[in-house]
Amino acid sequence: MATLTVDTPTPSLMGFTIPLNATAGALLGYIVGTAKGSPAIGVVVGAIFAAALAFVLVQFVPDRRAGRLVGAVVTAILGFFIARISGLVVGALLGLILSWFAYWLARGDYRATVPTYATSGEVLWHNTFKVICGLIFFFLIAPIAVVIPLSFNAQDFFTFTPEMLALDPDGYSLKHYQDFVSNPDWTRPLKNSFIIAPLATIISVSLGTLAAIGLSQSHVPGRRAIMAILISPMIVPLIISATGMFFFYSKLGNWMEGNLGMSQDFIGYVKVILAHSVLGIPFVIITVTATLVGFDRSLTRAAANMGAGPVRTFFKVQMPLILPGVISGGLFAFITSFDEVVVVLFVGSAGQKTLPWQMFTGLREQISPTILAVATVLVTFSIILLATVEILRRRSERLRGMSPT
Question: What pLDDT is attached to residue 389?
Fold first, then answer.
């Protein structure tokens, strides 16, 4: 039986690979030239260098790994002569990009993820779409990527100093991190954040999990309307929710102080914790509800037939299977409480000043560079939590049989 094979045409080197690589080099050269004050020269030099690099690599270095290394080394040397150490690092990165792009074009890898019968226009749109997604991702990540190196600035500036751009060790320092861990203006809000966020998370997880389990039952009347009300804090503008919480919790605080004799400081913590719990419950409801979609109801009926009560069935049968969703919702609730500032400004007082509140007031009043160090710590902390959420999500899919690995 004959098999049909489709030969992918080899792209033209002079008519396709080199012109496109020259265009990419011109764009990168424009960026470097603008930084040096001569964008026109950067465009010309970048285009010529990228074209020559693509020709040499494709023609004389067939091994991709070796070609990328050669491209990185050559471009790094060129960058060193332009801007010393910083140029060496940037040049190596640009060399890796240009050499990868040259092989990607010359070997026809741009067609690897599309069907063999796809037209040129479909191939162009497919790769253009990936470029658009990459640009969106870049513009989302770029502000964070800028903040992290600035947090190590040896000067009290919010901009890159000449020493930092030259990668001079004297331009970098940990003094902003030292101020963060030693200054009471920062350690006290950090302590408050780690008091409020965990307690608010516990309340959110407890109430949100029970609500999700109850609303997952088909016989509950008006469950769609109830679900809409419970997740409304995610939809309503936060400033509106904060205003309503201010009036509600101010009356609650006056009643607790007048009738229960509680101190104002303790009441302030109670109000902020309850307010953050309201904001965290929708995240728990959504994640637990999504976990319950694949839950086998016959397991709870089997446990009931064996004589287990509702509480025992919940903790022994249902909870272990939905635990990844519960933990994921708890992590989202924790992040929401830990990063929230608007509700704290309305509901709390100076005694409950959290870390985001201190950052907000610091930007308004004193422009402290320590904010950059705090932001870097929070970004790192959030990345760890989100990575944990992703691990738990995959584990939940495996437990429910939705993923083979």
Answer: 75
From CA 36, how far away is CA 385, in angstroms rounded? 40
Distance CA 12, CA 17 (A): 6
What is the number of other CB atoms lying within 10 angstroms of the CB of residue 217?
A: 10
CA-CA distances (angstroms) from residue 188 to 298, 352, 381? 50, 9, 18
Residues 348, 332: Cα–Cα separation, whole Å = 22
- What type of residue is 240? I
47/63 Cα distance (integer angstroms): 23
**HSE on the CB side for 148, CA within 13 Å?**
10
Determine contact, residues 104/110, Cβ cutoff 8 Å: yes
Whether the CB-CB separation of 308 and 316 falls below 8 Å is answered with yes
> For residue 219, how far is the Cα from the chain centroid?
38
DSSP designation for 154: S
Q: Any residues with CB less than 8 A from the CB of 114 and at least 6 apart, and which?
A: 122, 123, 126
Asked if 38 contacts 44 with a C-beta cutoff of 8 angstroms, the reply is no
* Domains of the chain (ranges, CATH numbers): 13-112 (no CATH), 183-399 (1.10.3720.10)
The pLDDT score that the predictor gives to residue 202 is 94
DSSP track, 362-405: HHHHT--THHHHHHHHHHHHHHHHHHHHHHHHHHHHHHTTS---
List of residues 6+ apart from 113 with CB closer than 8 A: 126
Q: Which residues contact 148 (CB under 8 A, 6 or more apart)?
A: 376, 379
Going by the DSSP 8-state scheme, the letter that residue 318 receives in this structure is I
Q: Residue 57, SS3?
A: helix
Q: Give yes or no for a contact between 288 and 396, defined as CB atoms under 8 angstroms apart.
A: no
Coil vs helix vs strand at 151: coil
Question: CB within 8 A of 27, min separation 6: which ones?
Answer: 46
What DSSP character marks residue 16? I
pTM equals 0.72
- The 3-state DSSP class for residue 153 equals strand
pLDDT at residue number 10:
59
Task: Give the count of beta carbons closer than 10 Å to the beta carbon of residue 97.
Answer: 18
Mean pLDDT of all residues belonging to the chain: 84
